């Protein structure tokens, strides 16, 4: 990790913990239960970490997760550790094959961000039976995982819901109709985002149409929004809950194509560059800013600890979570922040995600000037 990104991770942690301390309270204290690997430990730094990420349409995986994990693994192993990387491209069957590949290669530990958290359970068991511990990353995979790190996903949904109500202002009434664009049913995080959002929105507004968007794809969100516009009416949609930035973009495109002159507030997540630029112009109201450096560094520490020490150092895991198949999985939950026009400078720019020049290109310069982003 370069100096800017490392500084970002450290600074963000302090800032985000202050505003989102409650997000970390969802995990139970783990104590000495972090001993989740039966491995006797591997001496030395010459280890191989298998890294399986779910897709490459979302910018975060190639821009943040992969390079940060690779850098941290190298740092923790004095430059001797290696990362064997594969991307499933949103294909659960392909990811199962990739797990088999990692088992055949006899990697020492596997970091897994599951495409389908249930379908991957048999692969996780197969890896464990082969003596390869699996650390679930970002999504809580089922099966005998050794550890898990992610964000407080219900808190993400609550943050989005609260921001949407704030943006709607006086229009946030029980008679006001909103559209909910949730993520894929194969992603356990999507269900948690949805649960958190509903806990805030239910009873405050009317959910006129709601979709579980296949594969999180923007084009599927676009089609869903077109259907919602036909069912609800283009001028009757007072707000749009979108679980991430890509789907927000697809939804906004559909609204504009339908001739909606004044867009309703739209939420998002991931602080993708395109999403931040839509926030600058006002097309999108907010996104959820998450410290990928902190999450990626944590999973690297977990993986190396399990291999080198023979078990997960209990000082790394600060809590536990339960999956559909496992109880008290050692975990680290990272806090989140609501990103709007008001704090672009203090989040994505200050923390080194994007430069001012990357956000405020010629196309967006006037909009940036208008909100004082210069």
Topology:
Blueprint: H1 3-19, E1 48-53, H2 60-76, E2 82-87, H3 92-105, E3 109-112, H4 121-129, E4 134-137, E5 147-151, H5 153-168, E6 177-182, H6 188-201, E7 206-212, H7 218-232, E8 237-242, H8 245-257, H9 273-281, E9 287-290, H10 292-309, E10 319-321, E11 329-334, E12 336-339, H11 345-349, H12 356-359, H13 365-370
Parallel strand pairs: 1-2, 1-3, 3-4, 4-5, 5-11, 6-7, 6-8
Antiparallel strand pairs: 9-12, 10-11
Q: What is the succession of H and E elements?
A: HEHEHEHEEHEHEHEHHEHEEEHHH
Secondary structure tally, helices: 13
- In whole angstroms, the N-to-C terminal distance is 27 Å
**Helix coverage percent:** 40-55%
Order of neighbouring strands in the sheet with most strands: 2-1-3-4-5-11-10
Low-pLDDT runs of 5+ residues are 1-40
Structure class: alpha/beta
Name the overall outline.
globular
Please indicate the percent range of residues in DSSP E strands (runs of 2 or more): 15-25%
Average pLDDT confidence is: 90
Give the C-alpha Rg. 21 Å
């Amino acid at each position: 990790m370069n100096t800017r990104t490392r500084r970002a991770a450290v600074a963000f942690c302090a800032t985000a913990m202050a505003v989102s301390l409650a997000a970390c309270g969802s995990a139970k204290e783990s104590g000495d239960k972090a001993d989740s690997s039966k491995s006797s430990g591997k001496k030395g730094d010459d280890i191989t970490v298998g890294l399986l990420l779910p897709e490459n349409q979302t910018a975060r995986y190639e821009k943040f997760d992969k390079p940060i994990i690779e850098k941290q693994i190298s740092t923790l192993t004095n430059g001797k550790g290696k990362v064997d990387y594969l991307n499933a491209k949103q294909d659960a069957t392909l990811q199962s094959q990739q797990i088999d590949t990692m088992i055949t290669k006899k990697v020492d530990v596997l970091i897994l961000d599951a495409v389908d958290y249930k379908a991957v359970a048999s692969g996780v068991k197969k890896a464990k039976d082969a003596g390869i511990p699996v650390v679930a990353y970002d999504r809580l995979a089922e099966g005998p995982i050794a550890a898990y790190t992610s964000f407080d996903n219900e808190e993400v949904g609550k943050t989005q819901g609260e921001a949407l109500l704030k943006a709607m202002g006086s229009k946030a009434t029980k008679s006001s109709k909103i559209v909910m664009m949730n993520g894929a049913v194969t992603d356990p995080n999507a269900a948690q985002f949805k649960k958190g959002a509903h806990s805030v929105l239910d009873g405050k507004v009317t959910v006129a149409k709601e979709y579980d968007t296949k594969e999180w794809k923007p084009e599927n969100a676009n089609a869903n929004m077109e259907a919602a516009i036909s069912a609800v009416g283009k001028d009757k949609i007072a707000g749009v809950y979108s679980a991430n930035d890509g789907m927000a973009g697809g939804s906004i495109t559909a609204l504009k194509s339908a001739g909606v002159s004044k867009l309703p507030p739209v939420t998002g997540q991931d602080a993708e560059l395109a999403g931040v630029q839509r926030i600058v112009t006002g097309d999108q109201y907010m996104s959820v800013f998450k410290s990928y450096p902190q999450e990626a560094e944590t999973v690297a520490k977990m993986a190396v600890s399990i291999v080198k020490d023979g078990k997960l150092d209990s000082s790394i895991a600060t809590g536990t979570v339960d999956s559909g198949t496992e109880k008290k999985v050692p975990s680290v939950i990272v806090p989140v922040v609501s990103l709007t026009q008001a704090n672009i400078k203090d989040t994505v720019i200050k923390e080194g995600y994007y430069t001012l020049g990357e956000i405020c290109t010629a196309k967006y310069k006037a909009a940036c000037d208008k909100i004082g982003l210069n």
